[in-house]
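Obj.: predict assembly geometry.
Materials: sequence records (below).
Method: joint structure prediction, all chains together.
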Amino acid sequence: DVKVTQSSRYLVKRTGEKVFLECVQDMDHENMFWYRQDPGLGLRLIYFSYDVKMKEKGDIPEGYSVSREKKERFSLILESASTNQTSMYLCASSERQGSPLGEQYFGPGTRLTVT
Amino acid sequence: GNSVTQMEGPVTLSEEAFLTINCTYTATGYPSLFWYVQYPGEGLQLLLKATKADDKGSNKGFEATYRKETTSFHLEKGSVQVSDSAVYFCALRAYYKLSFGAGTTVTVRA
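Observations (raw structure tokens):
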């Protein structure tokens, strides 16, 4: 089974703190994604990575950055957390882009609260 | 751009009732369509998918048919169970990117 794990299920941080969310997948997938999930808005893509050290902005990249130094690990960084970044963060991975089998597999999510 | 609109919830049903969740999409080209399900406290799981017009996806008693003429991908189940209580997301994939609907919360009561 594909497994996508996220470092924390729940996280509470203070405004202005630097926050790291970690995601690891064990299926040697090329693509990895970070989404945030908010009630009534569904999931919105923050950043996407299609290879080590490669990244592309999603729909809402402002206030976030990412790092992918190893194929299996994709980190989301909040440089200076703000209260409007309180949300559920979901990581996903998939096979290489364009693959007909490229469905995305999701981690359990990290619920981040910024106070 | 690409977008997905699904019926708003919450939806509350009794066990063995019929469930329909409407989903329509706007997209250029020929996207693949998906239904994902999120059970309480868990991440999203792929429920079913369809990759071209008139394809029917099915899984766990759920079905959805890719209707290009009406740009729809409605989810149906003939007899729901308490264990089907979850949030359901319709999504489309164009290239690498998934675009999601807002989600529909379904509660099934015994």
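Conclusions so far: DSSP finds no helices and twelve strands in chain B.
To do: check interface contacts against the pulldown list.
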